Amino acid sequence: MKTICLLLISCGLYLAGQAQDLSKMFEDSTAGHQPVIGTFKSTRIIMGHSNETLKKHELDFRVAHRFGDIGGSFGGGKTAFGLDNSTDIRIAFEYGITDDLMVGISRAKGSGDLSQVFEGLAKYRVLKQTTDDQMPVSLSVFGNVTLSTMTSSIDETSASHFEEFTDRMTYVAQAIIARKFGDRLSLTLSPTYVHRNRVGYMDMNNMFALGGSGRIRLSKRLAFIAEYYYPFRSQSSKDYYKAQGIEFFNPLGAGLEIETGGHVFSVNFTNSTAILENQFIPETRASWLQGQFRWGFNISRRFSLFSKKDWKK
Amino acid sequence: MVQNKTLKKTNSKQMKRFFFLMAAALLTAHAYAQDIYSCRNVHLSFFSSAPLEDIEAKTDKGVSAINLKTGAVYFKVPVNTFQFKKKLMQEHFNENYLETEKYPYAEFKGKLANPAALSGDGTYDVTVEGTLTLHGVDKAYREKGTITIQNGQLTSSSKFKVRLVDHKIKIPRLVIKNIAEVVDVTVQATYSLATQK
């Protein structure tokens, strides 16, 4: 009798439990590994790329600007703290082919050995961090090719003296490892490789660099961002250029990022004058400590193309 | 021997009673299963009409169950499965407004006002009362809907309004002309008898 009673009670309990809470029926249907969204607000941080890509059929129109030195001999009141000068300007159209693959073309004024630069780029999201930490980091890979259309220098030792067409080209390959900690902090680490087909004497055709960045969300629309690159320039190259009176510095930027609907607007200060990785990583010669930093901005406007067509599907 | 026989008798009597009770229990369980209908592809959509922009999103990843006997109604949907026309809007929806990483599900637990009325095939106007948990905020709702029973199949549909402020979903002043304060939600589900596990 005892067993029967127990059985009945358990049966009854089971039924009562179910009757009270229909939600129990769907406990197996939890969402599983969800990708973390919005590690960064934009495809760029300040100078370099974030792990984010455009979504399918999104067009991003980007304008980036770097002004002249705020301090130092070229800055100060007479140039309105650099506002009169622009060291680099970049205008780009970038497009999402799939949710994870984007491509783009751009034109940059260029700042460094080469100027008047066309760029073609691609970025692919390989890994996505998940909310349950089954995948602890996101990984994206970025690559670009640039082509300078400037007139070849008559100085045969110059980096801008082009003997062959390919001398006008440079390349960057980069892996961006990112992680979002909670909903306020995002960090990246970006091993980068820069190849320039033609460089000056004792400069390096191949250069590795390590980038690092952080974003701290201050409010829903405002974030503080900072970014740093450490280029691995050989000691002999550094020594040679130092003897010529040229010193290289590591690019460092800090700024605020404001998001307003489809726009992402970043106002920043950097010592690097160039916008493209191909230039600011190996060719930054401006120093924060000597007042050679500038304000700059990145504007991104994203448009959804074919949205009506995609919606029908 | 005699003692053994009596023992056996009681045993068989007990066994009989046991089987009878088990059968009864199983029958109740069976009858119970006939009352629960479930759906794993509930279609949900919402529509917001503001001066500058109409926003529309849909998902078919909702789940639902209805117990016709007790009138219990249950809905749940992973909020980040809503698809928008514009992917950027979808990102803002998840990140800024619904904060889906913090609040991944929207859930409704409620009761039919008069479950006894649902007898046999037909279309019934019903009233559902319950609590909607959205964006981590509970709010009591009392909404009208339709339930149709036909050949053992049950479909339900409802249209109701959700005021964003009720669920502490904040719309910044900057986009106040793009997002309506009240959103029309449509729910549609086709149920089948829940199979007892």
Automatic annotation (TrEMBL), chain A:
Pfam families: DUF5777 (PF19089)
Domain DUF5777: 40-303
UniProt name for this protein: DUF5777 domain-containing protein
Organism: Chitinophaga japonensis
Taxonomy of the source species: Bacteria, Pseudomonadati, Bacteroidota, Chitinophagia, Chitinophagales
From TrEMBL, chain B:
Keyword Mitochondrion (UniProt): no
Residues in the signal sequence: 1-33
Keyword Signal attached: yes
Domain Lipid/polyisoprenoid-binding YceI-like: 65-190
Highest rank taxon of the organism: Bacteria
Keywords linked to the UniProt accession: Signal
The protein's name: YceI-like domain-containing protein
